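Summarise this fold before class:
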Amino acid sequence: MPDLSALVLNCSLTPSPGPSSTEVLSGQLLEALSSHGVTGSTIRVVDHDVRPGVETDMGDGDAWPAIRERILGADILVLATPTWLGQHSSVAQRVFERLDAELAETDDEGRMLTHGKVALAVVVGNEDGAHHICAMTFQCLNDVGFTVPANGCTFWNGEAMTGTDYKDLDTTPDAVASATSMAAANAVHLARHLSAKNYPAP
């Protein structure tokens, strides 16, 4: 079986080394992926100067080209975001906008460079919004060429109107652990198939 790699884009609003619930849950997903032999790494996007725009390189010190290179080098992309006002973070929105450029990037056979890559979503927040954010994330990432597996997300919605964060929990809820395990297993299964046989040329 081919070796696989995963990259988490942590779209927390909190710069490193600040504590991040998004980092905790996405880290648990990386651990689940590692149990299937996948190597993983994380980029906290807010730490980098990702310029606004919809091109692969916006110039003038834009950090996106280096991040993009790591995205294209991974088999599995994990888009991880907190929930604010029921929505994904502004950092996640910046990532989606930059990924729009992939619509114009193709290989010698006319496929997008993201074809054959798998995407997962991670969402955390002490308010409603996870299902909406997952649905929007799946649509965005699928539009730019990624494939989403069955049960391709893990999330935690804390009790609304309280101050408890995922990083404050003493134990991982069983439902979250189960969703994380299933998302990892399904992503690896799909990624191995696509690595062996990519989509046909259009």
Residues 149 and 190 are 7 Å apart (CA to CA). The chain is about 35% helix and 20% strand. The longest strand covers residues 76-84.
